[in-house]
Amino acid sequence: MSIETEAMDQAIKATTIQTAKYLTFSLKEEEYGIGILKVKEIIGMMPVTSVPRTPDFVKGVINLRGKVIPVVDLRLKFAMESIPYTDRTCIIVVEIDSDVTTVLIGIVVDAVSEVLNIKESEIEETPKFGTRLNTDYILGMAKMEGGVKILLDIDKVLSQQEVAQLENVS
Known about the structure:
Elements: H1 3-18, E1 19-27, E2 30-35, E3 39-44, E4 58-64, E5 67-73, H2 74-77, E6 90-97, E7 102-109, E8 111-119, E9 123-124, E10 138-144, E11 147-152, H3 154-157, H4 160-169
Parallel strand pairs: 2-11, 5-7
Antiparallel strand pairs: 1-2, 1-8, 3-6, 4-5, 6-7, 9-10, 10-11
């Protein structure tokens, strides 16, 4: 293999690694994104069965084709005010990897926007907000036309303890 061919192969690999697909959605006035590979399904709001003695942000569980899935309201998890659900409110079923296992969890969002290809060059590191604010769940900030999208590491939005609690709920 020539040096030129090897360099081209490396350049092709670099461009495929540097671009990723994100499902974007809104909460309040802000836009967020989750890596598309973590998303298993998007469904409209459906009746949620509440479970006693769970944190406020845990709305309860749903029965999705015979599988019981815990549902978390992301607005409440992020300490935003609760609003009535609308016809645009959705549940995004995501796969969360914990230390022990993989769990399916539904997250309630105001509205799903679109799937975007975001290049690594469009992503900046999470700004430092001081030592008291934990931002480990933010992968980075995607600079897009018209604003910024907050890219979430969905595996870290909930603590390991919270994921373990949700496993016991479902």
